[in-house]
Structure formats: C-alpha cells, structure tokens
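Hi D.,

Good news: the full-assembly prediction came through. Inputs first.
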Amino acid sequence: MTFDEQAIASDLDARVQQLLATHNPAHTDPQEFLKARFDAGLAWVQFPEGHGGLGVPQSFQEQVTAALAAAGAPEPAVAKNGIGFGMAAPTIAAFGTEEQKRKFLRPLYINQHIYCQLFSEPGAGSDFASLGTRAVRDGDDWIVNGQKVWTSGAQNAQMAILVARTDPSVPKHAGLTYFLCDMTDPGVEVRPLRQITGEAEFNEVFLTDVRVPDANRLGAQGQGWQVAMTTLNNERVAIGSGVPNAMIGNVVAAWRAQPELRNPAMLDELMRLWVESEATRLTGERLRQQLVSGQPGPEGSAMKLALARLTQSISGLEMQLHGEAGLRYDDWTLRRPEMVDFIGRGPGYRYLRAKGNSIEGGTSEILRNVIAERVLGLPPEHRVDKNIAWKDLPR
Amino acid sequence: MSTANLLYTDTEDALRDSVRRLFADRCKPEAVVALYDHPDADFADVWKTLAAELGLAGLLVPESLGGAGASAREAAVVMEEIGRAVAPVPFLSSAVLATVALLKAGETQTLRSLADGSTTGALTIPLSTPPGAYTATVRVGASGATGRISSVADANTADVLVVPVSGPDGLELHTVARAAAGVNVTPALSLDMTRPIADVEFSAVGSTRVDNGAAEDAVAEALLCGAVLLASEQVGVAQWCLETTLGYVKERKQFGRAVGSFQALKHRLADLWLEVSSAGATARYAADTYACGEADIPIAAGVAQAYCSDVAVHAAEECIQQHGGIGMTWEYPAHLYLKRAKSDQLALGTPYRHRARLAELIDLPT
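Then the structure:
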C-alpha cells in the first residue's frame, strides 16, 4: 500500500467509526441507517461526494463493506435490486446531471426505487440498436409507445432504465435516447413471461402513451447507444460472478456425502470444472484489480462468457452425477421469483436456468464479437444497415 | 479469501523489460531453430548474461547466501519472458529446480556458485516427474552412487548435478560434478530442443551428500516451486501464440477480406484470449501465494499447472491452425512454441496428474 492509499484507508476507517458512533446499528431503523451511510459517502466510495461516495478508487469499497458488516450494520438490498445497483446506478453516475444524481441515486440506494430494464424487444434481441419503441417529444415530456421483453422484476419495479427511438430518420445507432421511466405510470402494462423452468422471472412490458419527463433523459438526445453500452458493460460484470463456485461446491458436497454416486471417469471432469471455476474466480479478481476507474470495459464481456460456459457445464455434470435423482424436478408451478435462486433449487432447475446464461445480457456469440472487435482489434462484422436511416431498414 | 496481488509491480515490469530486450537481441527465433539441426548451437553466452550480468540466477536465493533475495513473483516474470522467446536457457533447471532443492536441503556452497551464475546446476530427475513423493532410481552404497535417470532437462550443459538418491535410511540429496568419473550423460533427441533432455547414468560415482536429513522435503519443494513457475512460462508461450496469430489474421487476406473478419476464426480467438487471461490470473496467483508462503500453495500450484498447461497447448495449436500452411513450415517459428507447449504440458506432471492430486488435496475420494 502506498502512502496515499494508507491515508485513504485510515480516512475511510474514521468515517465508518463516525457513522457507527452516530447511528448505532442496534438501535437505528435500517432505512435510516442506509440514508446516513449514503450521506456519509460510504454507499459506493468511487462515486462523487454528495452522491453517496467520496471519489476514491472502488477497491476501497471492500474495506468499508467489511467493517460495516462486522458491526452488524444493515446492508442495501443489492440482490433484490440487482438492476438498480448493478446497472442503473453506475449509468446514472456516469451520465446523469447533478440534479439527476441527486434525485435518483439516494432512493435507489435506500431501496425506495427498485429498477427494471426496458431494453430488448421482440424484434430487437442481439440487434438491440434496431429497437422500435418510439419516444416523441411533447412539451417538457416524451410520449413513449412500444413493447419490451425479457424484463425481469418488472412487477416489483418503481423505475426502469429505458432505451427508445427518438429519431427514426437517422441510422439505427444514432437515433436512440436513454430515459429513466416511472413504472407506476398508468400506460405501463406488465405481463408475466413463463420460461422453461416453469417460473416467470421475466415479463413482457407494453408501453402505451407513457409520459416520461425530459428531466429523466440520461445523456443527450441521440446518445442512447453510448449510455446503454455503459449499462451493458456493467451488466456483464454483474451477472452472477460467484455462481460457478457455489454450483461446483454443491457438486463437490454431493460427491463427498454420497459415495454411491462416485464414478472414476467423472472425477477428472469434476476436477476440470473445479479448476476452471477457480481460474474464473481469479480472472474476475484480477479484472477488479485492474479496474482503476471503476467503469468496466468490454473485458467484462469475457467474464460473462466464462460464467455461462461454466454454469452450463457444471449443471450438466451435476445431473449426470445424481443419475436417478436427476430424473425428477422440484417445482413446475408458475412462480414469480424476485431473483434467480440457483443454489436453493434442485439440479434440474439449475440445468434449465443455466441455459439462459449464454443468452441474457448479450448472447455468447455477440460477446465473442465484442471481445474480438473491441479488445483484440479484429475487423468488425459486415453491417449492411450501418448507414441506412432506421425507418428505411428492410423488415 | 483472496487478497493476492495479481498484477505486476513497477519493479517487475522493469525486470521484464530487461529480460525481453536481452532475448529480442540475442535469442531470435531464427537462431533458436538452429538447435534442431545443430544441438550444440551455443546459447551459453545468453545464459551467462541472464544469470550473472543481470543477476537473475540468484533471484530465489537469499542475499545472505549470495543471491538477490527476490521471490517467486520476480522469477515468474523471468519465466514468462523465457516462454515468450522459447529461450534455450537453463533457468528452470538451474535457478529454480536445483537451487530450491539445495536451499531447502540446507546446502550453501554449491548454492552460492549457482546464485552468482558461475556454475549451472540440474536437478537430476526426469522432467516429467509428477507432483508428490519422488522415488529415486539411483542408489548410494559403499562403492558410490549407481543408477540411471532418464529425460533430465539441461543435464548435458550443467556443471553440477543435484541428485536425489536412495540411501540406507531413505532419500538423500547429493551433488556430483557432471565431469566426474563414472558419470555418463547421453543427450536425447528432444521434442523440444530448446529445453534439451539427456539420460544420466551413474556407475559407482563418488558424490557429496548435501542434505541435513530433509532430502524428501527438498525435492518436494523444488517440484512445487517448479510447478508454480512453469505455469508462468506457459502463460508466456500462450501470449506469444495469441499475439502472433492476431497479427497474422489481421493481415492475411482471402475472399477479399482479412481472414480475422470471419467469425469461424475471430470467435475462437475471443475464447483463446479469455483462456490466456485466465491462465495469467492463475499463474500470478500461484506465484504470489508461493512468494507469501501461504498455506494453500499446493492447491494454487495445482490449479495453475492443470489450467496453464492446456491453455499453452491450445494457444500453440490455434497458432498453427489459424496460420494455415505457413504455420506448418520449418522457417515460421510457430512450431518452436508448439514443441515447447507440448513438452511443458508433460513436464512436472500432466494436467491429469495435477487434477488427480488436487482431488486428494480438496478431499474428493475416488
């Protein structure tokens, strides 16, 4: 640790002690505590002062989180509001005006605003930039019409990050704008979308004359693609980085506890996946150490690629390990889970749900393009629609 | 759980620069390939510069014993560069395997001469020796040491052989001059001529016992440290292969476009980049863990070996394939890396052996 780093560390330590002294976690309402933590700049230390941070490197967050956890302080609902914490917050921090940061970051942090993501559409999956949801200016507002899909948690969300087309007369990437949309607007209709696991994590969201104030526009009009890239890079880092280790832990535990399941040919395959899980954990750790600025680059795509391959391979092996028990399933009812519960459910669920890991947040094929083009500098895909106005694209 | 520093310090970067400059200058691929036709092609001066002038032979030796008092982190950086250049220098055999064995055994005299680069040593075990307990094939008795050890790396150019031998009370560690009477070193034709192997025969050779009763630990420690550092060499090999392939597929045009624009190639390179990045993380973790003397060194070493061995081979195989015909030619250097990568995969235990060992270490019974 350098002299400067030591100074930051001891300053943070003093602030933590100060917070704990004025807001004893044992006698403070959890939400009040989170408000005080936010105001003390200890929510996300890499964010600017006044917006829940202190403008110091993200690597110092671990120290703060650990010290507060040790003191029994309440934690923000990061898992329940994964899109808020993992994607909306960093995007607001990067592109929001002072006013927007003041208005949106604190409610997000103290769990007043649960977020969902209105990006994908039935006709715009991998080709997300071709989306057709329209936002038309009306005085100080935008009127939004369209259909979104794969929206997890929409039924619980107060807010959404939304990308809509504001100018159809320019090529597809140039006509997009990024908004923060109020999900309680009467024009928002949420319908569950059932998936292969039996449950409905996701939704279809229909937007009919939804009114979004221009004050909720994040970034400039027409800058939506660039703003969305920040969100997606964060999403790819946020997606389940600890899941493979937990999943392989399940398999290892079953191997130890049930000798009758063991099979010598399987042990090498199990160890291969154990080693890969460990390698992927270390890759993520190194990526975090390299993240000086706190904004993940396209390298984060590689982590998601690795995680998808691992969760699919491990859950596939786990089914074979269990043999007869793998023929059974734990629950086909249409449940509405608040978050993906990979570990609490059975092997069959893990096997089926993991199939989505290489599709959601960018398919593995799209991610390989991202790595190849933006990290390795290989020539881009041929894009015949690049210079054509969106309204003139063949459909 | 992990607070290991997985990056490189400024000092380590400076060390890397000096080693890379040396190899770029005096270890070019067209010179290295000569070893396959002329096994006696002499790189001794490159080794002397690396070992003595740059002072890197003594990286793992404490200053009190004449070394640089550095750690596995710095040695790993040297190994990465050796991999990148497929440099034919006996750093692994002399400055790592022989040095660590002597250090752990409590020997100081030979160690000092290895550390200052005036002498080169070789730990006389088969290069393919897997992790775990080593069984000696040389016996020592009243008439001296007798026995045969095959496939010993760099034995033919070593001045001193550091030999694990079977004595009346178990394993002992001895030193023998390669030129001593009764020592017969026969060079073999190696798959990887840049780390040549030789068979060593002892017939009633007078040797010096140098362990203080801890020979078994000394050999185990050398194998462990060797496994840790070999992973970094494999990372260097893989990085060269990836970077060279990227350069080629961006230039090479077929069907009117760079072949690197085809997803059939670029998606595989994206996967390979991820593998090489992960290999770098495991190798760095192993080096840092070893340098810090953490309890889980054997696991970190096993993970790094099991992972990096296969990644280096995969990178070298992709390098050949994505170059097409030119990759199969003698004059293009890709084959030097394939041969090093495949030999490294077999060295100090295959990935299968390391995974089997890891299963024991994390308590997964068969």
